[in-house]
Amino acid sequence: MMSNHSSVTEFYLLGFSGSQELHHVLFAVFFLFYSVTIIGNMVIIVIVCVDKRLQSPMYFFLGHLSALEIMITSLIVPAMLWGLLLPGMQTISLTACVSQLFLYLALGTTEFALVGAMAVDRYMAVCNPLRYNTIMNSHTCISVVTGSWVFGFLSEIWPVYATFQFTFCKSNVLDHFFCDRGQLLKLSCDDTLFTEFVLFLMAVFIIIGSLAPTIVSYTYIISTILKIPTASGRRKAFSTCASHFTFVVIGYGSCLFLYMKPKQTQAAEYNKIVSLLISVLTPLLNPFIFTLRNDKVKEALRDGVKRGCQLLKG
């Protein structure tokens, strides 16, 4: 597909294997998932902004988390859907490939930082309720969110720069549906072992760095909940954390499988499956996790639907 030199100007994405009929089925399924993801997360953002009952740090963070989910899935899925409709390999320019990889990693890192901050917020709400409003004020929340975004984008500049410093002389065909770093490194004729190890260490730092406060926070949260004398009190206390805890298990579980390996160049099919979990399934589940397990959000949704019906009747 290309001669033996490093001046790559574009890559070809193999996408999914199988017949065109299978591709059409996958298109229908992923299009449905994507539509539900966008609508569901947009609904969360709107109700968090307009409903006074949701004007608290937890829902402020949730609004930003939903925005991140929309951006992450929109970065990957529309191009993937386009590739399923068209026969053959899809072309992506070098600039678009660099941009896609950087934004994907930066938004994912931002999400890790935000999820860790949400765990600390739940710790404060359960374990220090009297000081909660004083500590988790609007200034603190804005600073935490801003810090998460800045950290996410700054921390991924070098990893992406290092990835594209290699010579891609084996081929310019990526066995993936987007510009995956592991598959990019497979195309290099250079020795990528040291860089892969550094990237692994950075992934450990980012994932474990955000997972550590989550683990510590939930250790204290569970300990505090178990000390509550009544069963109804324990249920009420845990209900404030159940949604976030569920999201943590799903989100961290899939990312640990994909990034926490010293060798970045795993099998293509393995990468595709885990990437689908991160870019399609987790953003899809987010609205359901935070609505079905949260009474305040359900109440706000019911009231919003009632107001909408009244406006339509009027």
Automatic annotation (TrEMBL):
Q: Which CDD domains match?
A: 7tmA_OR6C-like
The protein's name in its UniProt record: Olfactory receptor
State the compartments where it is located: Cell membrane
Its membrane topology, per UniProt? Answer: Multi-pass membrane protein
G-protein coupled receptors family 1 profile domain location is 40-290
Q: Which SUPFAM superfamilies match?
A: Family A G protein-coupled receptor-like (SSF81321)
Assign the protein's first listed, main location to one coarse class: membrane
Q: Which family does it belong to?
A: Belongs to the G-protein coupled receptor 1 family.
Q: Which InterPro entries match?
A: GPCR_Rhodpsn (IPR000276), GPCR_Rhodpsn_7TM (IPR017452), Olfact_rcpt (IPR000725), Olfact_rcpt_6C-like (IPR047132)
* Molecular function via GO: G protein-coupled receptor activity; olfactory receptor activity
Species whose genome carries this gene: Bos indicus x Bos taurus
Its function, per the record, reads:
Putative odorant or sperm cell receptor.
Keyword presence, Acyltransferase:
no
Keywords of this entry:
Cell membrane, G-protein coupled receptor, Membrane, Olfaction, Receptor, Sensory transduction, Transducer, Transmembrane, Transmembrane helix
| GO CC annotation | plasma membrane
Q: Which PROSITE patterns match?
A: G_PROTEIN_RECEP_F1_1, G_PROTEIN_RECEP_F1_2
So where does this one cross the membrane? 25-50, 59-81, 101-120, 141-161, 197-221, 242-261, 273-292
UniProt cross-references to Pfam families, sorted A to Z: 7tm_4
Gene behind the chain: LOC113891805
